[in-house]
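Contributing new complexes? Match this layout with oxidized coenzyme A.
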Amino acid sequence: MSTIDVKVPDVGVDGEVEIIEILVEKGERLDAEAPIVVLETDKATVEVPCPQAGKVAGIEVKVGDKVKEGDLLLRLKESGHSGSTENDDTEEAEETADSTTDTDAEEDVENESDAKQQDTEDGDAEQSLRSIEVPDLGGSEAVEVIEVLVAEGDEIEEEQALIVLESDKATMEIPSPAAGILQSLSVKMGDKLSEGDTIGELLTSSGQGQAPNPEKTSTKTESQSSKSTEPPADNKKQPAKAAGGLSEKQVNAAASKVHAGPAVRKLARELGADLAQIEGSGPKGRVLKDDLKAYVKTQVTRAQDGGGSAAGVPGYKLPDFSSFGEIEVEAMDKIQRITAVNMATSWLNVPHVTQFDEADITELEAFRKAQKPVAEQRGLKLTPMPFLLKACAYALRELPQFNVSLDMEQQRVIRKKYIHIGMAVDTPGGLVVPVIRDVDKKSIWDLARDCIDMAARAKERKLSPADMQGGCFTISSLGSIGGTAFTPIVNLPEVAILGVSKADTKPRFEEGGFVPRLMLPLSLSYDHRAINGADAARFTSLLARVLGDIRQLLL
Ligand code: CAO
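Output block (do not edit by hand):
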């Protein structure tokens, strides 16, 4: 058995490209053609396949590295067999093979320039028909269609993958250049396509490239798809229309809008995993192989582990609501899907307890109001949130058992030395939780700026996946809306979340008489596996004390 060097093949780009994902591990046995890394060029993401079967002897690159054609990616111990189950582990002398044939690359084209192509010109409310053509395939011609990801009548998002092509050196996903309704689809599996060939026609709203409202278009698209030519093989088994006019096909189409490469899609299909349920941690929310593996692991653990998992929880069947009256059906968007999965996962896995308390913020509010003109001069709005963040950071330092995550699989507690706090933001698109970093090290003004910036970006849907990762603790404030208390759900893998309700002036008995004090309701939900009730009471008492006299934050 000899060792060969696997190098970056020709990916149709001059200069360097970035490694955005590594799909293999040292010691892993690979089949020939198994994807090993994902590269991102300015116009495509490219999966580099393994030139032959073997065992990974060493990985020579890491995510973020910039590489060019001929650079070493990994060393492979040749095996005469393909497949990952061979047991020839014997270490043999390593011979350095000549450079491998720089043939294969898998491309997942994300053609930004085509996406920016102008819509055809019509009046404001007009829709226009736009032809979708095969983009530059890096010189390849007559490339076979190996997968069709959409069907006529589907509502398509800009950059959503439409078809997958496979040449002798690459597998490429062809994205939609704009949003719209797929009016016609001219290709099917097995077709051979070259640059400029027509894939189909897209009905776009003029001006924006926005997808038309499915409510407005569903009837039209249904009738259009019914007169369409035979749908591609993968899409033949479309279920009948759901009650309410929107077909289940359209509802299910949400799953195909996920940003993921061909190898990850293929693996997801093999594992029966629904990519739409997975939160991608890659660039632009791309679902990486590791995301898929973590998701499947969680599902398997939940199914096997009776302890507080969803195992054995009976599902429920919906009645036909249209039999009771008029209804509308719309597909959940990504935020709704992810929130639903995350909430249910936490609710089913975490034994929740909520500790209630009140903080006397009379002085804090007087101070905050006095600082409002200063805040305005600084171009900021000073709400209670920066003070809550600072007080929580203080409590997390004092009671570090709240700044942990539980690794139940390996029976470990992970203690964090940093303090990043998530802030639940109510947006028109749903609940999102951007994370404010190093809260303990920032001033109130810094935190006010971060809150404004994060809330604005959340509402404009401009948060990146990284903005929403790495939190140690979450604050969910409904104080500007109302309510006296609530039981927030722990934001896994954190172990506690603080719910804040509306402050109210209440009579407090002090020094022989009642005095009006502004009281802020606190609701601390915690994971009772990680935190005991006494610590929870200590946490809220400490918070109340610090919010009652913020000079303590200086100590
Ligand atoms: N009691 C009384 N008033 C409060 C308050 C409280 N607890 N919290 C905020 N307010 C006041 C603010 O002071 C401000 O009034 P002034 O202009 O007079 O100062 C007003 O309410 C509006 O505040 P805001 O909402 O603009 O700012 P914020 O920093 O308090 O909150 C944010 C920012 C992003 C957290 C909030 O906009 C939001 O989205 N909250 C909803 C979070 C949510 O949905 N949680 C539920 C998740 S499910 O568990």
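Reviewers usually confirm one structural detail per submission. For this one: Residues 81-125, 207-255 have pLDDT under 50 and may be disordered.
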